[in-house]
Specification:
alpha/beta; six-stranded mixed sheet; four-stranded mixed sheet; globular; binds octanoyl-coenzyme A
């Protein structure tokens, strides 16, 4: 089914590994389509409660495919941008947590892909940057929008205007990643984080994701109303009865995603 990515499932976690190491996992239209299909599957699959996205080899993703873009006219470039935005938006809107396990280069579209995930864990070998202006373009998979929201406008401009490449600890310092770990501990750290999330009620985690992501871009009053609306689904769920019942009965909750 997939040629450029690997898709596996284990213990309620979906693992999506971009596997195009000869091109540093660069994103072309085929890779984007496969990512879209994988995350669409994840969104529908009740067995999957969290996803971990990583890259094979030296790179997480070294950006959009420069050879492919070099041969494109403006309309083709715009179409590819829309494809990329669709993937980023899907990852951001599925009601399941997505963890980026950033193993190596996360440049351009790779940094943008990591930013579309909910939480980023970086290996000490990871490198981040938005080097697009050096290629005569601007970030086109959401980087001009997600980067300032994550790290602030001034720092985003510094990175985007200079194209500077930073390591994992600098990325953590500025709030681009949440955790940095030795390379050999990256997948364990991502799995531990996923396990800590999925022991909780899936409907509550999913609704919290939506409330945070949607509310973040609204004014406080509208965002508060959105939180009130988003609260209703988990509050009327079987998992709420189970979670609170388990607390009162002093036992562990068994959530059913209902
Ligand atoms: N696209 C295509 N091929 C790539 C890319 C890429 N982004 N990155 C690396 N490769 C290829 C290289 O061309 C090389 O291929 P070959 O072996 O056939 O020569 C192979 O991967 C290995 O790369 P290097 O030999 O360069 O490996 P190094 O370890 O020396 O360097 C780097 C690794 C630092 C990652 C280096 O390859 C590099 O700088 N890559 C480009 C990084 C970059 O500029 N990324 C931003 C791209 S632009 C972008 O992402 C825009 C997003 C919005 C798109 C909108 C759609 C239109």
């Amino acid at each position: 089914m997939f040629e450029n990515i690997r898709y596996e499932k284990k213990n309620n976690i979906a693992y999506v590994t971009i596997d195009r190491p000869k091109a540093m996992n660069a994103l072309n239209n085929d890779v984007l389509d496969e990512l879209f299909t994988a995350f669409y599957e994840i969104s529908k699959d009740d067995d999957v409660r969290a996803a971990i996205l990583t890259g094979e080899g030296k790179a997480f993703v070294a950006g959009a495919d420069i050879a492919a873009m070099h041969a494109m006219n403006a309309n083709e470039g715009r179409a590819m941008m829309i494809r990329g935005h669709n993937v980023m938006n899907l990852i951001e809107t599925i009601e399941k947590p997505v963890i980026a396990a950033v193993n190596g280069f996360a440049l351009g579209g790779g940094c943008e892909l990591a930013m579309a995930c909910d939480i980023r864990i970086a290996s000490e070998k990871a490198k981040f940057g938005q080097p697009e202006v050096g290629l005569g373009i601007i970030p086109g998979f959401g980087g001009t929008q997600r980067l300032p929201r994550l790290i602030g406008k001034g720092m985003a401009k510094k990175l985007i205007f200079t194209g500077e490449i930073i390591n994992g600890s600098t990325a953590k310092e500025i709030g681009l990643v949440e955790e940095v770990v030795p390379a050999e501990e990256l997948m364990d750290a991502a799995e531990k984080l996923a396990a800590n999330i999925i022991k909780n009620a899936p409907i509550a985690v999913g609704s919290a994701k939506t409330a945070i992501n949607v509310g973040y871009d609204l004014d406080m009053k509208t965002a508060s109303s959105f939180e009130i609306e988003t609260f209703t689904a988990p509050f009327s769920s079987e998992d709420k009865t189970e979670g609170m019942g388990a607390f009162l009965e002093k036992r562990e909750a068994k959530f059913k995603n209902k």
